[in-house]
Amino acid sequence: MKLGSISISLSWALVFQAILTCLLGVGLNALEAPFDSSGIAIFGVSAAVYAAMRFHPVIAIPIALIISVPLWLNEGSIVGKESLTLLPIVLSLFGYQKSLKQVIKVGAGFWSIVFLPILLLEHSLDNSDNINMVFSGVLVTWVSGVFGLVTGHFAYLAVHGLRRQTSSKSERISLHFLFGYFFSGCFFVASMAVIYLSISLFQQQQERQIHSYMKQRVKVLEFQLSDFIRRHQNAIAGAAQMLSSDVVKDNKDAAANTQLTILATRYPEFLTFLVADKEGEIKQAYPPTMLEKARESGMPNVAYRPYFYEVMQSGQPFLSNVFQGRGFGNDPIIALSAPIVDVNGVPTGIVEGSLSLKSFAAVDNLSLGGFSMLIEDQKGEVIYASERLQMQPLTKAPFYGCEPTCPIEVKDVNDDRTWLRFAEPLSFANWTVSYYFDKRLVMVLMSSYLLKDLLLLLVLSLFGSFTGYVVAKMVGAPIRRLVRYIAEFDPKQKDTAKLSQRTLHIQELSSLSDEFMSLERRLMKAFDDLEAARETEQSLNVELSDLNQSLEHRIEEKTHHLASALKEAEAANIAKTQFLANMSHEIRTPMNGIIGSCELMLENKLPSHIEARAKTISRSATNLLMILDSILDWSKIESGKMLVDTHNTDVSELIDASCELYRYISEAKGIEIITKMSDNLPTHLYLDAGKVSQIVNNLISNAIKFTNEGNVQVLTDYDGSALTVSVVDTGIGIEADKLGRIFEKFEQADASTTRHFGGTGLGLAISKGLVELMGGELHVESEVGQGTTFRFYIPCTVGENDTANGDDTIVALPDKLRVLLAEDNDINAEIVIDMFASENITCIRTKNGKDTVEAEKRYDFDIILMDCQMPVMDGFTAASIIRKEGRNKQNIKIIALTANAFTEDKNACIEAGMNAHLSKPIRKKVLFDSIARELSRV
Question: pTM, whole model, 2 decimals?
Fold first, then answer.
């Protein structure tokens, strides 16, 4: 996989490891913390650290972020979450494929230095009232990060340590450092496990004790409150019963005042008392001034009060919900009322007492410090709440969505505090009493214990480092002495001091020392033998020196001859290439006149015998051009300059075109050309059509040439990976001992072949070279008198169907086309001008590059046909000047018409600023097609 400039090698095994690491880390982070603290205690950082060491940052960083998701879903310090999330990310960016020391420096050093001060500041702001919570919270978060670093790094070293690759060329660490790191790490992890277990058990014990106390206390509170309400309710009911008796019928007002005075004396928790008749009119009240206040405030009637009409309707004592006093005081109160009945049991009035909520404070004061009490009525309104709960009477008590199956721990939605809560309904009234304890106080109680244990953890880790140092010293000291002894060992000194054995008390090190002493003895003996061999060698070297001097002289002489021969060969090759280029140019120039003249003549109506002569001249010139092309192709193959141009090709059309090319010649000899296409042959294949066509043309031409009767078959097949073409003739055949020579250049099966059949002997050599250039093979099978089969195969792939059809008609050019012809050869110029004249297009001619540049500056032209080799100024220079200084330098089209047919000639034309390249001889259709194509690109 490639991301920008980063290349990552992925495999299914690596993907599986990444997924497994991610799942393990998420699972560990999702575990509940072993104890409560203001810090963050998690274990999944180790998986993220392992991922940072194992995978490229492009993979490791997303894994670290996914692993940290459970961390962010829980409550805790924001800076703590950020620090634990960034630890593996920082390690991945700066520690991936780095040395052991670099990982420790980045993880334990840089991370701690950056985040510890910020973490300490955050905890100081959140827990400024308790220094123990500040430091214990910071240490818990820091320990989680260090635990993840150590365990993740150990896991990576355990799995990949022996075969890991680092970007460092060599990683060397001291034995002291290695032992100190591993011992302190192991001590840290083991001590952390024991200490965390101890803290967890201690906290569970503390919470069990608190839960037990709260459970017992809430039951006691329920009993105390129920008894409290019951006693006061009974007092009111007793007073009502006394006023209902016949004893006080005659002096009822005095009896009522007496009863209210007795109630006020015995039950000071009541704020007020009143006696009302059956109409709700207050008849007596206590204190005595209460009645006057009620009359002054216009509220002498209590018929609308629930404590009146509920009692009058039911005839039973009544306990009200909490309500705000009106007329007789503004304190929140609870009303207790009972009916006064006549002899028939019909209520004739009520006795009511208003109970102060401050009465419950006495019960609340019996609780231990930190515990709070809440009493709520059936409507969920606060009757009484401890000061710590910060709830006022008559306000709504907190409602928890989990009711009635809430756990012991509940969260206050208003201030995000977590409480331990036990609730119990009162048996005497439809009230609920709840007992609360702030969970933060548990953490405060635990913080000092936790801080001591964490400090002990650090001490044990330091002890582990010290232990590792001591062990490393015990092991390293003998090894260093042995290394020094080995470094000072000199086999020339026979009386060297022996290695001391006094401290080699470790068995393996003692065995190592013994083996070295044995090796020392063998080395001493070997050194003596080496000295003797060296003396023998010196004598032989003298003899070799004399021999070397003579050999060096001969080698220098041969090297000089070879260098001279190489230079001569290179010069001959350059001369050959230059000769072929010049020959091609000089031959193509008159050939252009011959073929162009014939083409123009055949466009006109000619007598049959003259037309036949013209066609003969054209075919002869074409054959001569094919011979020239064969020589040039063989030159390219030999020099390695022939390139393969693969494109989508219609195979059937290619084969048919080659057969049609030679059908006239074959019919003249009475030979039939038969083509057979296999059903497996696709319509199109990706191959070099030009080279395949040239190979097929050579093979068909040879088959017709050497066949006097019968037929020539062209068989085509495709096996899924290669195109196979077979050309089978019924000709004279080739003798078996001459089959190997026919593919050599300028060679034929028999010397008389050239005399009887003609040919250069290059066709098969070129065909074999072209087939091998395209990665295929060419084979021949022949039997004298029966015929010959040439078969070649070329690797290729299936192409895409192309519905476009070729058109042999000459395209029509614009009527007012402005053409400038740059040609120094009069015959070639006349041929081109006549081609345009046949289409009623005027063409202006210049004879050198300088005149061409001047003509272009003076007149507007659409097309310039540029010869490359001209006197005064060549075509390359003229094209470059026109592109820089021309009248229409941006839009004018320049097409090269040159006898230079090499690829480097075409590239030179394009570099000079020309748009296209046509090699001579020029065909009218090819010329006009090229002009039309270039004009269409405007």
Answer: 0.46
